[in-house]
Amino acid sequence: MSEMPINDERLSKLEQLCSLSIEAGIKKLCEIGTWPRPPAARRLRVGYDFYRDQLSKIPEVNNLLEYLASGNEIQSIYFRDSSKPELHILFEYWEQLLLKILRETEGISPRNRVFRKWFNRFVKELYSDSAVWKSIDSITGLILNAPQLRFDKATVLTSIRAYELESVIWGEDQYVQYDWTAVGLDKATIMTTVTIPKREYAPFLTPPPHLTKHIERHLSAIDAIRLTKPGVPRLHCHAQFQLSDFPVSNPLAYCDREGDHGMYEKETILDRSDFRGIRNLWRELMDTRYTDHLPKRSKLNAMDTAFARFSKTYKRQNWLDDIADLTIALESLFSPKDNQELSHRISLRAAWLLSLDGRDDEDSAKVKSKIYDRIRTMYDIRSFRVHGGIPKEKDIHKWVQTLSGIEYDESKYSELLEVALELARDIVRKAIRACAKLAKLEADGPHWPLPKNFDENIVIAGQRRIWQKAAGIKSR
Questions:
Q1: pTM score, two decimals?
Q2: Which candidate, 230, 146, 219, 224, places its Cα nearest to that of 188?
Q3: Dihedral (C-alpha) 134, 138, 144, 146: value to the nearest 10 degrees?
Q4: Partners of 208 in the beta sheet?
Q5: Cα–Cα distance for residue pair 476/473, rounded to 1 Å
Q6: Alpha-carbon distance 34 to 49, whole Å?
Q7: Which of 133, 189, 141 is nearest to 164 (CA)?
Q8: Phi/psi at 24 (nearest 5 deg)?
């Protein structure tokens, strides 16, 4: 939208109308007598009862609304849509302006220099056709060995810790309406800064998600990290706010999106050598899974199921449910169409595809056997869980030992459980990456969904290497 010309004569008229309405507003506040004096000015957000219906009774405000909604060149972009409630949209601006003025001094005059400073900013903000919004998510369990990882012009992963964010976001004297609690493991944050058309979000407290896409951007970033590196990074504290002197709404902030439980778990460490792969995967996810704000049911497929179940294991739930979800993910990727001997064939398929041949046949057999045994154990856990069974202690000890590959020790239960869960995740992580690569290939060779003759091909050494190369399987 081109900027509307405003000549001096019309600007003078606008200044006069705005000054009268603000002066009337201040007078009304003084009459009410509940707004705090300057030492407690920051409490204005929660300590006064100057409401929208009271503002509507001020004649000067009504005159201003009528003027801005007229056909003049200086009309506000907010009032071009007559279906929008004019007073509702403008109220927050007057509110914020009064907060700024009353914080400076008591009994301020519209002719005062302080007023002129804020008023000039207000007019500039009122007639701007766009606004800048910032969304922030702190991350638990992630160390970034660099100042930042930039995904694109809008989104960046930084090494700013959560406990350093309050002064960065809110400022020292800014009142925060919602809880924002930093924890020791929040050592990185994802920040997205976007410019959006003001008229599209004006009736709302915060912009509709499709305007900022911060949800998609941040989830895509964390998923790209999880699919690339082992560990447990979790989205924790979230904030969204407008970078403006006169924002439409108060900042939105809350904590515990995925939680900070399991503090014994190891942190994921990202180095510069990881940046290119993570950035490329982020772009790929943004172009596929995160093209729509909400996925359409008709577009869901087996890969969506696998991806969702893998991501779910990073949220608050029992570790047995994590294993059950990982098993469902594998079943979505490797399940044969006839469903015969399901657990056995899925375990075999994953073991043959995901394990590169070793230097000798014995090494190769050991690798395949470990993957096979772990997946069969995952199926045992799933069977107990989905059928309502209560496993005995000896069952749990056996499961943890098989999945972790370490002899069970009760004194190291938490550590072994972490290793067991992460090794189970790693099987699914490699499977998702492999099948995603195969899904891009034509059906006349290796591809996903797996063809009927997959089992026959994968047991032949030469064919298996062709499949593994196509799937991007590499030794670690």
A1: 0.76
A2: 146
A3: 30
A4: none
A5: 9
A6: 7
A7: 189
A8: -65, -35
The 10s digit of each residue's pLDDT in 166-190 is 665 654 444 444 456 656 678 899 9
- For residues 339-361, b (16+ Cβ closer than 10 Å) or e, as one string? eeeebebbbbbbbbbbbbbeeee
Do 405 and 370 contact (CB within 8 A), yes or no? yes
* Residue reference for tokens 């190369």: 469
How confident is the model at residue 401, as a pLDDT? 93
Integer-rounded Cα radius of gyration of the chain: 29
DSSP strand pairing (142-144 vs 268-270): parallel
Q: How far apart are CA 232 and CA 452, in angstroms?
A: 36
Q: What values do phi and psi take at 299, rounded to 5?
A: -95, -5
C-alpha 161 chain-centroid distance: 17
Instruction: Identify the CA nearest to 191 among candidates 163, 225, 162.
Output: 162
Find out whether the peptide bond into 449 is cis, omega within 30 degrees of 0: yes
**395, β-bridge pairs:** none
DSSP 149: E
- Vertex 47 angle, CA 45 and 48, to 5°: 90
Q: Which two tokens stand for residue 255?
A: 């904590």
Q: What angle do CA 234, 239, 245 make, to 5 degrees?
A: 160
What would the pLDDT profile of 344-363 be if each residue is shown by its tens digit?
999 999 999 998 765 455 66
Give me the residue label for tokens 């790209």: 224
Task: Report the candidate in 206, 217, 198, 205 with the shortest Cα–Cα distance to residue 293.
Answer: 217
